[in-house]
Structures are given as structure tokens and as C-alpha cells.
Design goal:
The complex is a heterohexamer of chains A (about 375), B (about 240), C (about 375), D (about 140), E (about 200) and F (about 230). Chain B contains 5 helices and 9 strands; from the N terminus they run ββαβαββαβββααβ. Chain B is α+β, with helices and mostly antiparallel strands and about 240 residues long. Among the domains of chain B are: about 30-70; about 85-205, Alpha-Beta Plaits (2-Layer Sandwich). In chain B, a hairpin with a 7-residue loop joins β4 (about 110-115) and β5. Chain B is elongated and about 95 Å long. The two termini of chain F are about 20 Å apart. The longest helix of chain F has 18 residues, at about 20-35. In chain F, α3 packs antiparallel against α7. Chain F contains 11 helices and 4 strands, in the order αααβαβαβαβααααα. The chains are: A alpha+beta (about 375), B alpha+beta (about 240), C mainly alpha (about 375), D alpha/beta (about 140), E mainly alpha (about 200), F alpha/beta (about 230). Chains C and E meet through α1, α5, α6, α7 and α15 of C and α2, α3, α5 and α6 of E.
């Protein structure tokens, strides 16, 4: 039995390929690792025929830091900070995914206040993440102004986080058994103010970008991902929902206080870039709806149920937990050895990792410019892919 | 305005995994005449231009905070984490007892506590070394401290030309904590026990590897690195 | 083919009697030449110096303006820290680029790489020379002005093509090919729109076209035709100067920086400057052709009204109108996303070109049957 | 689960339904899991490997999910450490192609008949598989609490 | 006086530049440089036309030859290959053949020029130099007019354009923007979620 | 332009008043460079959001410094803003980008990851512990990630450095503040008082004045004369 292991060169420059410059119509270009299209640092090797894409070979790993290996050396509490640095745009949701898995495994209980606050900050972050995505999509498609509008909204939400959490990006806020701090006294009031500010802004997005004929033509019918294919490729989150599958963990296996909140799952009908765009815009509205329902009813209680110094005992075994982040299902597999205050093995099922590979299918046959539309609507965060 | 309005959503209930899931189906494009499409296209462009123009002519929409100019009035959130400090009590004595809980809580060894035998106590703080260059500002040290000796402050202006300057000695003096000092009634003895420390004191490392104090932490390369031997070579191994 | 069309447009051209004292610098120099050679030389030197000052001043001014306007579109302030409100920002940028290392990639075609930015710049500067800024401020009034403009703007393409090709970089090459294809395509539409005005004015000379608008600007004097031609010209020339939404040759998110990816320092500055001055040229041409150039807003016969309008000097009219068009082009850029390359081509060949042809035919009919305002003038 | 043939047993200590299959029967079981309409595990949520160094074997786990029924299952299989070869399931779940590449890259699991078995994150000439417990890297600073 | 002297200097300058660039066209080893040199030849001859007072011709020369033909050549060169396209050193036979051909051509031109009588044009035979006169001639139906050749040429060009489109068109475009169609009905069916199917509930995790 | 900078000053200094000319040229050079720092966005990770995007966004507005012209091609960039972790796979690419930048070029390392490897300093097999192992870094902006304001502070620091920096008399020689210029042999503690004072004052060590006021004046002068302005 022989297993053939290849290298990238076998694909790009297979031995024996014609070396003649005049004989080839197709050529390779490198998008990335430092290319404006590569949000972060992803390398796309693109085989082109003129402007038409023949093949896309993603080469990740330019921010591979070995987080899974590092986690094996860190205690249950310490490894939370690593999750901030995978999908940094949904850091709180990542925190929550790991914290929740540890809580489930170790049998730690939380209270309603903790869960409500977690839900609120997670939804705020989803809003923030989508606002940023919207702006970056605009920039990718050549409109710089939406980028700044998107960031303007992000900044407004960041202010809430700065007050309560004390950080803008790498939160480390949701910890096993509780929260790092209790919410800031102004939290509810400020959040309501921000929501009131955001609602008309989302309509503005419609005027500026969504309604724009150029954007619509750049997105409509581009990169169609049928539902069956999306499932087979393991896509989750807005990408899967845009294909028409209402798969949202917040509904399918509700965590936090999502069960008590009333909201709809936005789904698309075709699975093209336009649907992915609309689903995210609609998700922003739904997030606002969720937060509005919860913000006035944060129950009283302590902000943590486990003392910081207390040792968390996770029983031996494989523990899997998952959460719906802004980009899809983040699954955390914890393999506990039983005794040590550290995981024996930690594995992240990152939503971006699976969504990335849809590029290879979606971009084929389109133009260079469409890769950008496709990649932008997949909303990839590269450090989450690389881990 | 355009061929599709984002608010034209349709509510439905679908089932997934045996549960009803209320969904909003996002809008698709309507079939329109060629001329209507053209008119819509123009209208959509104009609508966008109107929006941006509205921002241009309303200076009140400018949200920029002018940082270096607004330094005097800049108010940062109290919880913002940008610099670690050792707190002092009301007498100006440090609270840190050199118990090393923070050192243990730190996920990437950015804190190193050096102790020495003291005159008033068996064991007292010599240097509290904090590596700002590698700190992740996760607040674990502050949370772990049972004495409230640590705090994160929002000072953020620390840009330097040399990385070595990001390694601080946090304690103002080497010596026992307030709890011990206050037991000693003699002022002179107290003062003698407090040897001043400078933030930039001590030789500082460039790379994390050549800091003598930190050597104990870094279990540097094992004697026989098996990296090249044990792994099966990539390519055609059974 | 466009040349033949121009000939067609020139058909029926008549000497336009002008009430305005148009006197170009070249004309003064020619006048002075037999008597006083040095005066002629002085005139030419002044013209050249003026052109140089115009290029640098305009370039820096426009870049500063663009940055400020962009900033305010986006709820921010723009350059603030170099001089009051950052007015010296582009000065700093210019000197920085001047003192920066010029890199020619090792495998580049050195001669062409060096030449390309100058070609791009030359075509722009050549165009500045024939624009009538005011009745007395025009360097040379070529009697085939419109044809000259069309011909010279074609040279700029060579700059882009050679710059992209000589860089030995795939992104540059793709950008250059895109740019050339785009510019050549849109030139057709732009020319078609130009021809409408040439037909109405009955002259190819730019100052002739301006004076032909003494009774009213072509955009409204030639009822629908003028408006459509104006829109086509604005769109097509925005595409010709590679501005968003047509900035495909340097589409930042796709091609890193397009044809000038490998350019640095002074030579990059030339491309950069050429882009902005091109914007001015396009705006100035739009104004000259459709909005009356330096001609105040006149309504044929309404002499009292016209007299009031004449109080504002023609140079100010020209500047004001040009600034407006420049602003509109900037406005486009800071509002719209970028088109895809095939959509761009489709827009040109399937939408603008047919409309342009139909418009030209309509215009011909209008000229033939004098179906425009104040035909007697 | 009991309907499947022998050799398949319950994997204990997993917080969701889990079965262990012999590595050589992996493909057959996987195909059945996907195609059986009552099971219909159409999504491979996650796949990775655990290095049980002390026991000298790797454990591969496959988290499955059925979007039709909403049920989940974890499939695990042991492979010996010195010959970590398993059949690829990338023909059953296309996403496995990349998840397996990751497992190859970091853990050194070799997937038989994998269409494109390459390093994923690390450079092609990287030596060793870093997630293995006995991996040592001379550049790596280690500290253990 | 000054004027004429300046014109003479300019004439020789343009002429010399044209000849130099023409030499560069045949001698350049890179095709693209040759194309560029060709562009300068054409520009220099446009300059000569200007000196002769034929402004319209000069304009058309630049527009058509520089703006059209040269760019076409450059396009063709670039599309053939992205490499730097060095010409081979010609073989001896080719060089000989080239020498014979050019000497023959030179002799022929010499003979032709020797027979011509060069001198100032006759007063009546001056070609029309302003655009409107050219326009009139082009669209003149009379014996002096060129309307037939003009129309023939435009037909020819049209045929060439259509032929070019036919040759260049490879595949029909997949996506038609700016069309009236919405999403075709039934397309959404492809994306019918599997969860929509009525299937018995399975065991839960 | 190499001509202007390399040859001209030598000639100009000889003519009467040449000194003034060269000095004002120095001033112009450094002023224009300091005020026109076009960043090359080298963002790999979270810091990219804060350093390269949030700073440019409306609330912070990098364009106030004239630095919003983010170039995607290294040829046109002046300062490489390294935002995020550098791993072994990226390091050669980063070096290449740095080498493709046109002189004069500066590098800012922002955030713990770029400064030292930060969160991934230990136990990571793929991290490069500090961008300065790959490219020379001029300014370090600590934080994880730093606030956008902290980035501005870093930018101001860099600007101050540039203003005092280059001179046409010695092209290519960068005048850096004392600490960077210190040889490895001199322990920091030896001059910590001076450094401390200077840091308190404006976070920049003024080469001339700080050295002149210190007992280390002679030693430092000598060292600078031998090392810094070496032809």
C-alpha cells in the first residue's frame, strides 16, 4: 500500500510540463499571501486563461501558529485567550464556544445573568462582525466609502465592549463558569442607544450598496452554491443558509438564552453571492431584534459561578461542543486526559476552514474580479483557518 | 429604486432536524422590462450619490476624534487594558507579596517574579518583571491576584525604538508588602527594607532567550531534537 | 473610422463670427514675431512656465481636494496635520516621492519602463495646451482642436500599455491590457459624443466651440441630444481616465496596483499626477464642449440677463464649471463600486455605443433642420 | 447502531453518541452512514486525530451531523502509530479532503487514495508532524506549568 | 525670415528623427521596442505634415496610426506572449536576402524620384487643407468627390469589425448583466433544503 | 533622484552658503518624508483590523497624518506596518516585500505578535519570535492589539525619528535614537537615568542633547563617530 504525498510544485509546475512560454495560454498567478484580496494572509494560486479562472488552489498556513499544540500546554482557563486570536472578529463567540464546552464537560453551572449577557455580547459582536464584513465587501468591490461606514458602525459597538470588557478585539471575556467582569453600569442604556443608531444605518446600507445596480450585477448569480453541495463541502453559517438550509445552531440546538428570544433565521433561495450578501444584512436586523428583546431583562445574579483560582476538573474523554459564530459553526473538541489541568488535545472545527474550500468550486469559470466577490461573500477570516 | 429591495423578505416556517425553524427568505430579483431596468439602474446610482452627498454637506456627521490634538481631553474607558501596574496602598507601600499566582496564571510567561530573602520577612519581592512586548492583556494576572496588587490601566502610549524598553520592572522598590511593612513600627527600618527599583533596571533581553532571569522558564531545545528522525518522510511511505 | 466621422461632422462647418476677443498666446507670439522676436520668445516661455506651474499646481491641488472631499464623504476629516487643515500634505507627498528611490525591476525592459510614465504625462500636458481657459488664456488654438484632443489622448494609452508590459509582472500586464482595452473602447463613445457638439458648433476648434455657445450652452441648447451626449461623454471619459467605477486597470483589490505595480518614486508620481491632471482635462473638455467653457451662462436674446452674467469674468466661469465636473467625477468615485471587466465592455459596446450612434444621427437631423434653440446665432 | 456488523462498538467517554470502527471498515461504515435514509449523515462536521502516545496509536474522530434528521454521531477509529494509514472518506464527504490534509499535515496520518495529499499549513519541506506528542522542534520554546 | 529658418530647422529635425526611429524599427531586437519606434516615426511624420500646413492630416495620422494601428500592434505582440520576445539573430541567408531586397527598393525609389519633378506646387493644385473642405470632398457625389470610396471603405471596415468579433468570440457569456430577466423560476428549486423533505425524525444527539 | 541626494550635497557644501543649502535640503527631505508615510499594509492577523483598518476608519482617521494612502504594492510604500503574527512560512515573504520597498523605508511592528511572538511565544513550533528577526524594525507599538491611538503614537514617534533622521551629507545612514544605536555590549542600566529622563520628556532620545548632557557624552560621541557616520 502506497500513499502518494504531493507538493504544491507538483500541481503548479509538474515535471515534464511544457516549458515553452509561447505554447501556453493558461498561466498561474499568486493572489497572496499579501494581496488585498487575502483578508489576512491567504495565498490563492489561480490558474487563469486570460481573465477567466480555471482553477483556484488555496494555500493556507501563513498565519498557522499551532494553537492546537499550544493549548496542550495551557490550563483550561488560559487557553480561552487563544480563541480570541483565531476568528478575531467573533472573539466573544469563540470564547463562549470553548467556555461552554469546558462547562459541559466539567459540569459547571452558570446562571441566567451570565447566559443573557453572553447572548447579548455575542449578538453585538455578530452585528459588529457583519458591519465590518459589509464594509470590507464594499472595499473589495472597489467602493471605499462603504468600508468606512461599516467601520464607523463597528467603532460604535466597540465602545460598548471597551466599557464593559476593556478590549476592542481580543476580549477574553467569557470564561468557564462566568464572565471576566460584570457588565458596565451603562451597558443597557448605551446598547439601546447604539441599536437605535444602527437601525437606520442598515437601511442606509441598502441605499448605498445593496440597491446599487453595479453591486447587484457583481453579485447576482455569481458563485452559485447549491444546498446539497454546501452541505457536502461542510459549509455552515450564512454561507449554508444562503443556499436555503435554515441550519442555525441558535435554533437547532439553542444555547445561551436564544430559546427565549424570538428571531428568524435568514435564508437565501439560490446560494449565489447575492443571497450570501442578503442573508448577512438580514442577520444584522435579526441580531438587533434579539438584543432588543434581551437588553431590558438582564436578570440579577453574580457574574461568575467559579472562583478564578479554582481548579477546573474535566473528566477524561472526548467532549465536543459547538456554537454558531458570525461565520458558522465553531466546533470545539476537547480531549481531556483526566488529571492534568490542561487539554490532552484540542481541536477547533473552524467555520472558515470549511467555507474556504467552497472557493475552489465557486470561482471556477468566473473572472478574476469574481473571485473577490465570492471570497468576500464567504467572509473568510484567515487566522481562523490556519489556527 | 432598484430591482430588488432588501426589505422584501418573506417569512416562512421550515423544518430542520425535526424542529420548526422560522425563516426569513431574502429577496431575489424581479423580472422587469429592459427600460425599467435601465431607469432603476440610474435611479439606484443617483440614490447612492444623494446619500454620500448628504454626508458631505453635513459637517456634523464627521465622527473623527483627533487623537494627538485631543490628548488633554481624551477619556479612555476605565477598564481598558493597556498597561499593567502594581498598586500601592495609601501609605505608598506595595501590596504584592510575591506569591506568584499571577506568574502562574499568565498564559505566556510575560510575568516573572524574582524574590529574595528579606529582613522583615522570609521572602519578599525583588523584581516584578513584566514583559509588555509579549503580554496579551488577557487580565488573568489581575483576576488571579488575591491582594488586589495588580491593575490594568488604559495608558497606551508606549511606542519605542527598542524592544528591550518594553520590559519593565513594575515594582518601585524591592521589599516586603504593605501587610508586613505595617507591622514594623520603626520608620527607618521600613525605609531600609525598601530598596528602590527602576522600571528599566537590570539587563534586558532582546529575544526572550538571553534573559538570565527568564532562563528557568524556557526549557530550551532538548538535547536530542527528534524532529528530523522520528517522523516518516513525506512521500510514499507505507 | 472615427476620423472619417470627424470629416463628416466637419461637413458644413462655417466660419463662426465671434464677438469675444479670443486671443491665444500662440497668436500673440505669432503677431509679435516679425517685429520683436524676444517678445515672442517671452510669450512662449511664459506659456511653458505657466503650463509647468499649472501641471504641478493642479496635480497637487486636485490630489489634496480629492483627499479632503473623500474624507468628508466618509464622515472624517482628511489631511489635517501638515499645515493648517493639511494643505501642505500633497507638497510633502510630492517631495517625498521626488526623493524616493526609483526602482527598475531587474527583469524589466529598462528603457520602456523609464519611458512609459513620461509618455503618459506627455499626452496629458499636450492636451492642457489647447484648452481655452479664458478668451485670452489659451496657449494654442489648433483649428482641429477636437481631433487633436482625440489623437493625443490615444498616446496616454501607450504609457499605460508600456508601463504594464515593461514591468515584468503579471499583475501589471493584466492591468495594462485591461487599461488599454478599456481606454480604446471608451474612446469611441467619447468621440461620438464629441462629434455631436462639433456638428452643432460647426467647427473643430475648441475656442470656436466655446464662442459658438454665446447664445447658450450646448447641453441645453441642443435639447435632448446635448444632454445625452453630455452624459455619454462624462461616462466614457470617466472610463478613459480609469476612475472608479471604471478603475479596472488598477483595481486595487484585484490587481494590487495594476499597471503601476512596479513603479516607485518619481515615475510613480508621474502616473499618479497624470491621472489627476487627466481628470482635470476631461472636466475642462466637458465644460468646453457642453457647458460653454469660459462662456457665461447666456440665453439667446435675453441681453439684460446676459449682461448680468458677464459680470463674472470668463476665467472664473471656466474654473467654477470645471471644479463642478471634477467634483462630480470624484463623487462617482466615492460612491460606486467597481464594474467587472466584461460588464465594462458590455456597457460600452452594448449600451453607450448604440445610444451614441443614435444620438449622433439625431443630432445630425437637428442640425439639418435647425431643431435647436437660437439656431440663427 | 447494533444493526451494523461486528467490530463496531460504542466509544465510551464521548459526550455524544459515538461508535468505534476498525480502520479497515471505515469506508464501508461511512458510506452506510451517509446513504442509509434513516441515518443520512450528510455533513462531516469535523475530523481530526488524537495521538495516544502512551498507547502507541492514533485515534481518528469524525463528527457527523445529519441536516435532515438533526442527529449527530461521532465515529472514531484507531490506527497504529507506526503505520498510520487509513482509507480516505473524501469521496463520501468531499470536505474530508481538506480535513484529512490537515490531519496529515499536523499529525502525519496517511490517507490511502486521497486525491491530493499535501501539506496544508506547513511548507512542503517541513520535517515532522507537530501535533504528535513526541514532536520536538529546536526553535520551539517550551514551558510547562 | 526667422520664421522660415525655424521651419527649416524643424523640418530637418523631424526628418532626422523619423529616419533614426525608422532605423530603430528595423533594428530593434525586441518587438515592442520596434513598435514604439514605429510610433515615433509616425509622430515625426505627423510633425512634417504640420509643417506643411496639413493639420487635419497630421491629426488623422496620429489618431489612426498612433492611436489605432500601433496600439493594435502592441496588443498583438503582448497577446502572443508575456515573455520578452527577443528576435533571433538573423541567419546569413536572411541577411543577404534582406540586403538585396532593400537595395532593390532603394534603387526603385531612386529611379522614381529621379523622374519626378520636385518643386513648389502649382497655385491651383493646392490640396484642401482645412477640415471642412476635406469633409465636403469626402461626401461629394460629383466627379471630384470621394463618396464612393469613402462608403466602400466604411463597408470594408464594418465587415472587418464583424469578422473580428466572430473570430474572437469563443463561448457565449454565462452571465448577462443589464438584461431584463430576473431569476428564472424553478432555479430556486435546486436549492430546496433537504430539511424540507418529510422524513421521520431521527435520534437526537 | 539618487543624483540629487548622493552627489549634489557634496558639491553644494563647497560653494559659499552651501552649508545652509544642505541643511535646508535636509530639513525639506525629512519634513516631507515624515509627513508622507504611506503604509504598506502587512496585516496577518487581528492587529490588521485595528492597525490598518480601524486607524483608517472615520473615528480615528489615519488620513489626518497623510498616511491613508495604503499601498498594496511595496514599491510605493514608505513604512511597512507589520500587524500580526509572523510565522515561518510567512517570514521569507515578508523579507521579500521589505526588500522590494524603495528606500527610504521604515518598519513598524505593532502588537505583541509582531514584536515578540506575543501570545505564541512559547510552545508554538511555527512562530517567528518577533518581526525584527526578519526585517529591521524601527518602531515598536506594544499592545494586543494596540488601540488605534497607540498606533498614532507610534506613528508620531516614527515621524519624530525621521525628522531628526537622515541627512543628505551621509545618505543611507539612518540616525536613530540612542537605544537602538547602542551596541550590545553597553548595558542599558548604565545610561538608564538619561534614557528615563528622555523618555519621560517625549519618548524620544534626542541624540545630540541627551548625549551632551550626560556623563556618557564623550563615550557616546566617540561611539557614534566611529559607528554611525562611517562612510
Amino acid at each position: 500500500m502506497t500513499v502518494n504525498v504531493k507538493t504544491l510544485n507538483d500541481i503548479i509546475a509538474p515535471p515534464g510540463a511544457a516549458a515553452s512560454a509561447l505554447a501556453t495560454e493558461e498561466y498561474f498567478v499568486n493572489m497572496g499571501p499579501q494581496h488585498p484580496i487575502a483578508h489576512g494572509s491567504l495565498r490563492l494560486v489561480v490558474r487563469l486563461d486570460g481573465e477567466t479562472v480555471r482553477e483556484v488552489i488555496p494555500v493556507p498556513g501563513f498565519v498557522h501558529r499551532g494553537i492546537e499544540k499550544m493549548a496542550e500546554h495551557l490550563s483550561w482557563r488560559q487557553l480561552i485567550h487563544l480563541t480570541d486570536r483565531t476568528d478575531y472578529l467573533s472573539a466573544l463567540m469563540n470564547n463562549w464556544a470553548v467556555a461552554r464546552t469546558i462547562e459541559q464537560a466539567a459540569g459547571l453551572a452558570t446562571n441566567d445573568r451570565i447566559e443573557t449577557v453572553r447572548t447579548i455580547v455575542a449578538e453585538l459582536q455578530r452585528l459588529q462582525s457583519h458591519a465590518l464584513w459589509w464594509g470590507v465587501l464594499g472595499m473589495d468591490l472597489g467602493a471605499f466609502t462603504p468600508f468606512l461606514y461599516g467601520f464607523r458602525e463597528r467603532e460604535v459597538i466597540s465602545e460598548i465592549f471597551e466599557d464593559t470588557i476593556g478590549a476592542r478585539l481580543t476580549m477574553n471575556y467569557i470564561q468557564p463558569g462566568g464572565l471576566m467582569y460584570d457588565i458596565h453600569p451603562d451597558f443597557a442604556q448605551k446598547t439601546k442607544r447604539v441599536l437605535a443608531y444602527l437601525k437606520p444605518k442598515i437601511d442606509e446600507y441598502g441605499t448605498l450598496l445593496s440597491g446599487n445596480v453595479i453591486l447587484q450585477e457583481r453579485l447576482r448569480n455569481i458563485g452559485v452554491l447549491p444546498a446539497a453541495r454546501a452541505i457536502a463541502l461542510g459549509c455552515t453559517g450564512p454561507v449554508l443558509r444562503a443556499s436555503g438550509v435554515p441550519c442555525d445552531l441558535r435554533k437547532v440546538e439553542p444555547y445561551g438564552v436564544y430559546a427565549s428570544a424570538e428571531f428568524d433565521v435568514p435564508v437565501g433561495s439560490k446560494g449565489d453571492c447575492w443571497d450570501r450578501y442578503c442573508v448577512r444584512i438580514e442577520e444584522m436586523r435579526q441580531s438587533i431584534r434579539i438584543v432588543e428583546q434581551l437588553i431590558d431583562h438582564i436578570p440579577e445574579g453574580p457574574h461568575t459561578t467559579v472562583k478564578f483560582g479554582a481548579r477546573i476538573k474535566v473528566p477524561e474523554g472526548i467532549h465536543y461542543g459547538q456554537i454558531e459564530t458570525a461565520r458558522g459553526i465553531l466546533g470545539v473538541t476537547i480531549v481531556a486526559g483526566g488529571k492534568a489541568d490542561a487539554p490532552y488535545r484540542l481541536h477547533f472545527r473552524s467555520p472558515n476552514f470549511n467555507n474556504l474550500w467552497a472557493v475552489t468550486e465557486l470561482a471556477r469559470g468566473w473572472r478574476i474580479a469574481d473571485i473577490i466577490a465570492i471570497q468576500s461573500t464567504l467572509d473568510l477570516v484567515v487566522p481562523d483557518i490556519d489556527r | 429604486m432598484a430591482r430588488v429591495k432588501l426589505t422584501d423578505t418573506r417569512k416562512e416556517t421550515r423544518t430542520l432536524a425535526g424542529r420548526p425553524v422560522p425563516v426569513v427568505v431574502t429577496p431575489r430579483f424581479a423580472r422587469r422590462g429592459r427600460l425599467a431596468v435601465f431607469a432603476d439602474a440610474l435611479a439606484s446610482l443617483l440614490a447612492g450619490m444623494r446619500l454620500t452627498f448628504g454626508y458631505l454637506v453635513r459637517p456634523s456627521t464627521v465622527v473623527t476624534r483627533q487623537y494627538p490634538e485631543n490628548r488633554a481631553t481624551l477619556k479612555l474607558p476605565a477598564r481598558f487594558r493597556a498597561r499593567l501596574r502594581l498598586t500601592l496602598d495609601e501609605h505608598g507601600y506595595q501590596r504584592c507579596t510575591a506569591c506568584r499566582l499571577c506568574e502562574r496564571a499568565c498564559p505566556n510567561a510575560s510575568i516573572r517574579i524574582l524574590t529574595r530573602p528579606g529582613a522583615l520577612s522570609k521572602h519578599e519581592l525583588d523584581r516584578y518583571i513584566w514583559r509588555m512586548d509579549s503580554c496579551v492583556f488577557c487580565n488573568a494576572c489581575v483576576q488571579s491576584c488575591p491582594f488586589g496588587a495588580l491593575e490594568m490601566t488604559a495608558e497606551f502610549e508606549h511606542a519605542v525604538f527598542d524592544r528591550r524598553l518594553l520590559i519593565f520592572t513594575l515594582n518601585r522598590y524591592a521589599g516586603p508588602p504593605a501587610s508586613v511593612l505595617l507591622k514594623e513600627p520603626d520608620e527607618a527600618k521600613r525605609a531600609a527594607a525598601m530598596e528602590p527599583r527602576d522600571p528599566y533596571g537590570g539587563p534586558v533581553p532582546l529575544n526572550g532567550t538571553d534573559l538570565p532571569y527568564l532562563k528557568a522558564l524556557a526549557v530550551a531545545p532538548r538535547p536530542d531534537p527528534v524532529r528530523h528522525a522520528a517522523a516518516p518522510a513525506p512521500g510514499g511511505q507505507a | 473610422m472615427t476620423g472619417a466621422l470627424a470629416a463628416f461632422a466637419a461637413f458644413g462647418a462655417a466660419e463662426t463670427a465671434t464677438a469675444w476677443p479670443v486671443k491665444t498666446v500662440a497668436a500673440r507670439a505669432a503677431e509679435a514675431l516679425p517685429d520683436n522676436v524676444w517678445l515672442a520668445v517671452l510669450y512662449m516661455a511664459l506659456a511653458l512656465a505657466g503650463l509647468g506651474a499649472l501641471v504641478s499646481g493642479l496635480g497637487m491641488g486636485l490630489i489634496y481636494l480629492e483627499r479632503k472631499i473623500a474624507a468628508h464623504f466618509q464622515c472624517r476629516l482628511g489631511p489635517m496635520r501638515v499645515g493648517p487643515h493639511g494643505i501642505f500634505q500633497t507638497v510633502a507627498d510630492t517631495f517625498k516621492l521626488l526623493f524616493k528611490e526609483d526602482i527598475v525591476p531587474a527583469r524589466a525592459d529598462k528603457a520602456l519602463h523609464v519611458l512609459a510614465p513620461f509618455l503618459a504625462m506627455t499626452s496629458t500636458v499636450l492636451m492642457l495646451g489647447v484648452i481655452p481657459y479664458s478668451p485670452v488664456l489659451q496657449i494654442s488654438d489648433v483649428n482641429i482642436g477636437v481631433l487633436y484632443i482625440t489623437a493625443v489622448s490615444g498616446l496616454g494609452v501607450m504609457g499605460i500599455l508600456l508601463g504594464g508590459w515593461s514591468s515584468y509582472n503579471k499583475w501589471s500586464l493584466i492591468g495594462a491590457m485591461r487599461g488599454a482595452a478599456q481606454i480604446i473602447s471608451y474612446e469611441v463613445s467619447a468621440t461620438l459624443a464629441l462629434l455631436v457638439v462639433v456638428m452643432f458648433a460647426g467647427t473643430l476648434s475648441l475656442s470656436g466651440i466655446v464662442t459658438s455657445q454665446a447664445e447658450g450652452w450646448w447641453i441645453w441648447r441642443a435639447p435632448v441630444v446635448g444632454g445625452i451626449a453630455f452624459l455619454i461623454y462624462l461616462t466614457a471619459s470617466t472610463a478613459e481616465i480609469n476612475r472608479t467605477p471604471f478603475d479596472i486597470p488598477e483595481g486595487e483589490s484585484e490587481l494590487t496596483a495594476g499597471f503601476h505595480t512596479e513603479y516607485s518614486g518619481l515615475r510613480f508620481a508621474f502616473f499618479f499626477l497624470a491621472e489627476f491632471i487627466n481628470m482635470f482635462v476631461v472636466a475642462a473638455l466637458t465644460v468646453t464642449l457642453f457647458l460653454g467653457g469660459w462662456m457665461p451662462f447666456h440665453v439667446g436674446g435675453a441681453n439684460a440677463f446676459n449682461a448680468v452674467m458677464d459680470l463674472v469674468p470668463p476665467g472664473a466661469w471656466f474654473l467654477g464649471k470645471t471644479a463642478l465636473v471634477v467634483f462630480v467625477i470624484m463623487w462617482f468615485r466615492w460612491t460606486f463600486p467597481r464594474l467587472r471587466v466584461d460588464q465594462l465592455m458590455r456597457l460600452e459596446w452594448k449600451i453607450l455605443l448604440p445610444i451614441g450612434f443614435a444620438n449622433l444621427a439625431l443630432g445630425a437631423l437637428a442640425v439639418l433642420y435647425s431643431l435647436y434653440f437660437f439656431p440663427g446665432a | 447502531m447494533t444493526a451494523l456488523a461486528s467490530g463496531i462498538e460504542r466509544r465510551e467517554k464521548v459526550n455524544r453518541p459515538a461508535v468505534r470502527v476498525p480502520a479497515e471498515r471505515l469506508l464501508e461504515v461511512a458510506a452506510r452512514l451517509r446513504d442509509d435514509p434513516a441515518l443520512a449523515f450528510d455533513m462531516l462536521v469535523d475530523h481530526a486525530a488524537i495521538d495516544w502516545h502512551a498507547e502507541n496509536r492514533f485515534e481518528l474522530f469524525y463528527h457527523l451531523f445529519s441536516t435532515a434528521h438533526g442527529h449527530a454521531l461521532t465515529l472514531t477509529a484507531f490506527v497504529p502509530r507506526d503505520a498510520p494509514v487509513v482509507p480516505t472518506v473524501s469521496r463520501i464527504w468531499p470536505v474530508a479532503e481538506w480535513q484529512e490534509r490537515e490531519a496529515y499535515d499536523l499529525m502525519g496520518i496517511l490517507y490511502d487514495e486521497h486525491p491530493d495529499l499535501r501539506r496544508l499549513f506547513l511548507e512542503d519541506d517541513w520535517q515532522g508532524f507537530p501535533l504528535r506528542k513526541d514532536y520536538r522542534d529546536p526553535d520551539m520554546l517550551e514551558f510547562q506549568k | 525670415m526667422m520664421h522660415d529658418a525655424a521651419l527649416t530647422v524643424l523640418f530637418y529635425a523631424f526628418g532626422a528623427f523619423a529616419i533614426l526611429c525608422a532605423l530603430a524599427v528595423v533594428n530593434a531586437r525586441r518587438l515592442l521596442r520596434a513598435a514604439l519606434a514605429l510610433m515615433f516615426v509616425l509622430l515625426a511624420s505627423a510633425g512634417l505634415y504640420l509643417l506643411l500646413g496639413a493639420e487635419f492630416l497630421a491629426g488623422i495620422q496620429v489618431l489612426v496610426y498612433v492611436g489605432g494601428i500601433v496600439i493594435l500592434i502592441v496588443f498583438a505582440v503582448m497577446l502572443t506572449s508575456a515573455s520578452d520576445l527577443l528576435e533571433d539573430h538573423p541567419s546569413l541567408g536572411r541577411m543577404l536576402a534582406g540586403a538585396v531586397a532593400s537595395i532593390g527598393f532603394l534603387a526603385f525609389t531612386g529611379v522614381v524620384f529621379a523622374r519626378l519633378e520636385l518643386g513648389p506646387p502649382a497655385p491651383g493644385a493646392h490640396p484642401p487643407d482645412d477640415a471642412s473642405a476635406i469633409g465636403r470632398k469626402l461626401l461629394d457625389f460629383g466627379a471630384e468627390g470621394y463618396v464612393l470610396p469613402f462608403e466602400l471603405v466604411s463597408l470594408l471596415l464594418l465587415a472587418a469589425v464583424i469578422g473580428g468579433i466572430v473570430v474572437a468570440r469563443k463561448t457565449p457569456p454565462r452571465h448577462q448583466p443589464f438584461t431584463s430577466g430576473g431569476d428564472a423560476p424553478g432555479e430556486a428549486d435546486i436549492a430546496m433544503p433537504r430539511s424540507q423533505r418529510d422524513e421521520p425524525e431521527g435520534p437526537h444527539a | 533622484m539618487a543624483l540629487i541626494i548622493d552627489t549634489l550635497p557634496g558639491l553644494a557644501e563647497k560653494i559659499p552658503g552651501g552649508q545652509v543649502l544642505v541643511t535646508s535640503l535636509d530639513w525639506l527631505l525629512n519634513w516631507s518624508r515624515a509627513n508622507s508615510l504611506w503604509p504598506l499594509s502587512f496585516g496577518t492577523k487581528c492587529c490588521a483590523i485595528e492597525m490598518l483598518m480601524a486607524t483608517g476608519a472615520s473615528h480615528q482617521d489615519l488620513s489626518r497624518f497623510g498616511a491613508e494612502v495604503a499601498r498594496n504594492t511595496p514599491r510605493q510604500a514608505d513604512v511597512m506596518v507589520i500587524a500580526g503574527a509572523i510565522v515561518k512560512k510567512m517570514a521569507p515573504r515578508m523579507r521579500m516585500l521589505y526588500e522590494q520597498m524603495a528606500e527610504p523605508r521604515w518598519v513598524m511592528a505593532t502588537g505583541s505578535c509582531a514584536i515578540s511572538g506575543g501570545p505564541f511565544m512559547y510552545n508554538s513550533y511555527h512562530i517567528v519570535r518577533g518581526a525584527d528577526e526578519v526585517v529591521p524594525v524601527d518602531v515598536y507599538v506594544p499592545g494586543c492589539p494596540p488601540r488605534p491611538e497607540a498606533f498614532f503614537w507610534g506613528l508620531l514617534t516614527l515621524q519624530r525619528m525621521i525628522r531628526r533622521g537622515e541627512t543628505v551629507r551621509a545618505p543611507g545612514v539612518r540616525r536613530k535614537p540612542v537605544l537602538s544605536a547602542l551596541p550590545q555590549g553597553i548595558a542599558v542600566q548604565d545610561i538608564r537615568a538619561e534614557i528615563h529622563a528622555a523618555l519621560e520628556a517625549e519618548n524620544v532620545v534626542d541624540v545630540e542633547n541627551a548625549a551632551a548632557a550626560s556623563p556618557w557624552h564623550g563615550k557616546l560621541r566617540q561611539w557614534m563617530a566611529t559607528n554611525l557616520y562611517k562612510p
